[in-house]
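FORM 7B: Structural annotation worksheet

SECTION A. Query
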Amino acid sequence: MGEEEVSYSEDGLDATDRLRQDLPHSARMYDYYLGGKTNYAVDRAAAEDVIRNFPAIRVVARVNRAFVHRSAGFLARERGIRQFLDIGTGIPTAPNLHEVVQREAPEARIAYADNDPIVLVYADSLLGGSPEGSTGYVEADVREPGALLAKVRDAELIDFSRPVGLSLNAVLHFVPDDVGPYEIVKELVGALVEGSYLTISHCTPDFDPEAWAAIVDIYTKGGTPTQVRSKAEVTRFFDHGLELEDPGVVVAHRWQPEPASGPSLVTDQQVSLYAGVARKV
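SECTION B. Predicted structure
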C-alpha cells in the first residue's frame, strides 16, 4: 500500500540508523506485496496482518504499478511530456518510471524524490537512464514542498519553465489532514507551468470501510501515520486549476485500461485505489 514512507526522516541520524529495521516499513511492506525481496521479518509480519484484514492488498499494489506505467506512458506518448518529477519514488522495481517514459521518449528527463533512507540505498537503480535523456534523485520530503522543489532546481534535474509530469502515486495517503495535504499539492502544482500534468493514485475505504480502518491502524501503530480518503476527497486534489483527462477520477484499473487487461478481471473493492491524471490550464 504505497510507493513512499514518510515518517522516518530523523535529523542527526545517518541512512543506516534511519532504516529503522526494528519497525515495519511501508516501502518494504509494499515491496513484499509485489513479491520483492527488499523486506525484513518485521515488514512481512505487518504485511501479513494487513493481508489477513484485506486479502486483496496485493491486487492494490499490482494495479497501482500498472497505473503508474500506463499514465506515464500516456503522458510521454500522447501528451508530449518530456520531464517528470516522481515524488514518493519507493524501492526501485523494474520497470521504473524512467524506463517506461524513455521507452516512449529516450530524451526525457526524470527526477525522483523521496525522503526514505531505504530508497537512497537503492537509488543507483534509478540513475541508469537512456543516453539521450537523464535521471536523477534527490532526498526530500513531500511534506516540505518548498524545500523539495528547491533541491530539484538546485540539482538542475528539471527545467520548470517547460511542462512537467508530476507524479504523486500512492503517497498522499501517508500525508494525514493535519499535515496539510491539499496545501502541499497546491504548492507543488503552483510551481509548474501551464500544460504540465498531475498524476495521483490514492487508497480509499469507500468499498470496504471496516477492512481499511484496520489497515490504517496497522500502519499507524507501526509508525507510519496513514489516512485513506473517499472519491470526493481524492478528487479535491485536482481542484487547483487542473482539467482531468478522461475518464476522470476512477478506480485505478478503470483508468484507460490496456487491451486484454480487462477491468472485469478484478473488482472495485479489491482495487480500492482511486486514480486520475489532470492538465494544468
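SECTION C. Observations
The domain at 15-280 is CATH 3.40.50.150 (Rossmann fold). The beta strands are 83-87, 109-114, 134-139, 165-169, 197-203, 242-244, 250-251, 273-280.

SECTION D. Sign-off
Analyst initials: ____
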